[in-house]
Amino acid sequence: MASNLTPFTSRLALLRKPSIRFSTKAVQKLQFIPKLSRPVAPFLHRTTDFVSVHYSSCLKARAINASSQDEELVVLGIETSCDDTAAAVVRSNGEILSQVVSSQADLLVRYGGVAPKMAEEAHSLVIDQVVQEALDKAKLTEEDLSAVAVTIGPGLSLCLRVGVRKARKLAGAYALPIIGVHHMEAHALVARLVQSDLQFPFMAFLISGGHNLLVLASDLGHYIQLGTTIDDAIGEAYDKTAKWLGLDMRKSGGPAVEELAREGDEKSIIFKVPMKQHKDCNFSYAGLKTQVRMAIESKNIDAAIHVAAASEQDRKARADIAASFQRVAVLHLEEKCERAIEWAMKIEPSVKHLVVSGGVASNQYVRSRLNKIVEKKGLQLVCPPPSLCSDNGTMIAWAGIEHFRMGRYDPPPPACEPEDAVLDLRPRWPLGEELAQGRSEARSMKTARIHPSLTSLIQASMQQ
Ligand code: KG4
Ligand code: ZN
């Protein structure tokens, strides 16, 4: 591992037009980057130079330590991209020292979904406590950390900001390198923590509240996008179905639908499987949501009456809708997943595993149905445990560790960073380049304000 470590090479050095001049000269003068040959653009954009002797000397010691003893890396991961405030401390040998998640259950119940401003306030209220608890549970202090990893995108800007601020404050105060993590890559990479022999290339199917993503993971930071959603993700469809059926939203809608569906007849209502005519690997759940809403209206189900208080007949009607919805929602996953495996095997015949991760991958029905497809195609399914499928700090710390080992990280921020510093947040940040064959005619992708993909940034840096 040690040989994989290269001197400080900011992954954000890949930004095409860095808005900060972090001069090579200044860095060399401080002598903490022996072979830095190009300007570094940290993921913070500021107008003033922030190199300080204080952190450079600490960092040098730490970097040497990290490169000589990779097993000693201890990384704090912070995640606030959506509604969960999460932190974890993970060792580079895969040991999870602590994991803390504070979810916004009451807000979900009140608003039936994530309201960005409320979510931001909720993150701000608990972030310090969550990080402190993660350190306490790990029986460590900030001094013991090798680096801080934090989600910088994709996600809600307001929410991302809370985590990034906290990470930078902590990293600045303790002179720690910082790693900006792609949330979806972290969902995929956490499978390599769970199953240490999982090698590239592998396939990943990431299913969550905001994403349906099928990728071929060729290497760390190198992903080919086989399919994505053209509108809503499957988790969003689960959440709305739960809300309209008057289910308990405290653990998000998905688990509630999964549970009620066990009581229902999945063939009682015939919903149309989305995008059957499209011979690609893309998804659409907006139409299925509408079908579900119409079925609920036609059965006069009143969401204001909680399912626990519903009559037996009413409960049965709701369970039938839940089961019928789930069958079709997952059939859609199965069809596209099967095609994606065929495509991926043509590109990389050595693929042996399909990772299913993201919140919806906690669903037992989803897992068992996808397992059948994966086995039929001669692959092996890798599914992290539910606590690592839904948003968590461990996956961020682990993705941070993987990139840190490759030398992709930023130097510590200044110890006293101004509150109004402009942060590099990437709310719309694709993971990989889209396979030409996979482009959907049905999609009117808004390309404005989309960040260059992680893969393109890393490739650009490697060519330099
Ligand atoms: O990955 P995640 O925690 O956050 C995002 O990045 O979106 O995924 C959250 C989504 C929610 O939509 C939630 O309803 C769904 O995952 N989910 C489930 C289950 N557990 C969580 N969906 C279906 N069945 C479940 N058991
Ligand atoms: Zn997620």
Give me some keywords for this one:
13 strands; 41% helix; 6-stranded mixed β-sheet; 15% strand; binds zinc ion; disordered N terminus; 5-stranded mixed β-sheet; tRNA processing; Glycoprotease 1; alpha/beta; Gcp-like_dom; binds 5'-O-[(R)-(carboxyoxy)(hydroxy)phosphoryl]adenosine; 464 residues
Summarize the model shown:
It is found in: Mitochondrion. Its cofactor is a divalent metal cation. The protein is an alpha/beta fold.
Question: What would you note in describing this structure?
Answer:
Residues 95-398 form the Gcp-like domain. Homodimer. The protein has 464 residues and is an alpha/beta fold. The chain has 14 helices and 13 strands. It has helices spanning 24-30, 53-68, 105-111, 116-137, 157-173, 183-194, 234-244, 253-261, 286-298, 312-347, 364-376, 386-389, 393-405, 454-463; strands at 44-45, 74-79, 84-91, 96-103, 147-153, 178-182, 202-207, 212-219, 222-227, 353-357, 380-382, 422-423, 433-434. Strand 3 and strand 4 (96-103) form a beta hairpin. The chain is globular, with a radius of gyration of 23 Å. The two termini are 23 Å apart. The model is unreliable at 1-69 (pLDDT under 50). The structure holds 5'-O-[(R)-(carboxyoxy)(hydroxy)phosphoryl]adenosine (KG4) and zinc ion. Residues 183, 187, 208, 358, 391 line the site of zinc ion.
